[in-house]
Design a protein that fits this description.
Rieske Iron-sulfur Protein; elongated; single chain; 2 domains; four-stranded antiparallel β-sheet; 192 residues; alpha+beta; 4 helices; binds FE2/S2 (inorganic) cluster
Length: 192
């Protein structure tokens, strides 16, 4: 048999071997799965379903910001030493409870821990008996009056009252500003 006839026979035999036909099958399947319009549609459908599913799960677990209540109790009046600034409610509620005096009248009042310049949180300096704002240096006396720095007005007060159980109750939904004469309001302090 001539040499070229032998080669042709060998090629034909290899094309029809089981191994060759299996490879062909997988190649055709891969083309069908990856490149066909059916595969593209299926992928898009899966992606849409996945996005919907993840959105639904996210909806079931929304971001919940737990804000501290606007009204809260801070213990009985006798727990507050005369002349003391209580700072333990500052981090959670943003207030100082002060048993001090204003214009010669002893009282307990609640100062809002927000500087009246640009809103930073001042720090109570016990040794200097003043609130000092770390941002631009405003200073406030224990009664909330401003005396140094750029703050244009005193600190604000929140409402305070003695509740039914004899505890002091702070109400942050109501504020009182000294420059508007609102510190005369009996809801802005508790006399002691
Ligand atoms: S924010 Fe307090 S001094 Fe500016």
């Amino acid at each position: 048999m001539p040499e070229h006839a032998i080669e042709a026979a060998a090629t034909s035999a290899s094309r029809t071997s089981p191994d060759h036909s299996r490879r062909g099958f997988f190649r055709r399947a891969a083309v069908l799965l990856v490149g066909s319009p059916l595969a593209v549609g299926f992928t898009a459908l899966t992606a849409t379903f996945l996005a919907w599913f993840l959105g639904s799960v996210r909806f079931m677990f929304p971001n919940v910001l737990i804000e501290p209540p606007l009204r809260f109790r801070v213990g009985k009046l006798e727990n507050y030493e005369p002349g003391k600034v209580e700072t333990k409610y500052t981090d959670r509620f943003g207030v100082w409870i002060v048993r001090g005096e204003f214009q010669g009248k002893p009282q307990i009042y609640v100062l809002r821990a927000v500087c009246t310049h640009l809103g930073c949180t001042p720090i109570w300096l016990e040794s200097e008996q003043k609130f000092k704002c770390p941002c631009h240096g405003s200073g406030f006396h224990k009664d909330g009056m401003h005396f140094e720095g750029p703050a244009p007005r005193p600190l604000e007060r929140f409402a305070i009252r003695v509740a039914d159980d004899d505890q002091l109750e702070v109400d942050k939904s109501r504020t009182f500003r000294q420059e508007l004469g609102e510190w005369e309001d009996p809801d802005s302090f508790v006399p002691v």
